[in-house]
Amino acid sequence: MERPRASTHYPKSLGEFQAWFPTDADCLDYLEWLRWPCGFVCPSCGHPGGWRLGDGRFMCTGCGNRTSVMAGTIFDRTRTPLTVWFSVCWHFAVGKDGVSALSLKRTLEIGSYQTVWAILHRLRSVLIRPERERLCGKVEVDETYIGGKESGLSGGRAKGKKVLTCIAIEILEPKGFGRCRMAPVADASSESLHSFVLDNVEPGATVITDAWQGYRGLEKNGYMHDRRSQRAASTRGEDPGELLPGVHRIASLAKRWLLGTHQGAVDTAHLPSYLDEFAFRFNRRRSRSRGMLFYRVLELAVAHGPIRYQDLVMSPSPKAVPPKPPRQRGHPPSLERPSPGRPWRQIPNSG
Ligand SMILES: [Zn+2]
Fold this sequence. Notes:
Among the domains are: 14-35 and 70-124, no CATH class; 138-148 and 155-283, Ribonuclease H-like superfamily/Ribonuclease H (Nucleotidyltransferase, domain 5), CATH 3.30.420. 34% of the residues lie in helices and 13% in strands. It is built from eleven helices and eight strands. It has helices spanning 14-20, 24-35, 82-94, 101-108, 113-125, 190-200, 230-235, 245-260, 271-283, 290-303, 309-313; strands at 50-52, 58-60, 66-67, 138-146, 163-171, 177-184, 206-210, 224-228. The strands form two sheets. The chain has a five-stranded mixed sheet, sandwiched between helices. Helix 3 (82-94) crosses helix 10 (290-303). The termini are far apart. It binds zinc ion (ZN).
């Protein structure tokens, strides 16, 4: 498809967003267009073309399979009205630092915290394409501890332990940063660190690390390795803390973001998806059109397979303590609203 344009492919402002998607049916049609921009293609057999059935589903003219726009995507079997999904997604995408479930529940007057929480987590889960391009050029790599209980926060709001997290960031010439990647690692062993580098950095790149032995042997995987020794830096009279300025910058931005937007209340088990969200935002920090990010998130959402509620609340890491699943209660009503007819004109005269 041609490059997406504001006001045609995606709403450019909150005003346009509200005008485009007043009803659940409008949202559904947008998802249909995003999933099948050139018309229905059968997800079972790949045959293009089908009949639209009376109940809104499609029947493939090739294999006879019946399916719906939302089946097989993260919207599969959702009972939450699409107007709610779209509003949550809009706020998630256009907010420079994202949103927390609690603040969004209040802003949108959605009764159920769990509903907002689950939508936000599903959106986070689709952000990273498995086939995404790895980092290249000059890439700094280091590990740091992220998350866990911060001193000064009362009531145990920040649950869980600090998690050893690997960070990689492209260093641009003559200055500036490119894209970043972050992921928790089991330990600082050479197996864990090498597998992080292989997953996230393109062979042929120059990997810049400190002198930690866990990074030895990167050359064998096709990398150029620039090892920077703290001791050597001190001997030269340089600040050893500034050996890897890129990863330190990312680490402090990510920690500040977790404490700011999410108030530090991030479960260890969910840290990986928050790190994915951070990297998604950081890597698009220069995007001037926030509406475009709304489009990108929904585009990823219709291309991503279903995510069961149980998968969201289960711990992705076998060692971490599983978080208590939020109780699932009733589903919120649609955000479709009939026009209230200028209520301010209906105030009876008091005098
Ligand atoms: Zn088919």
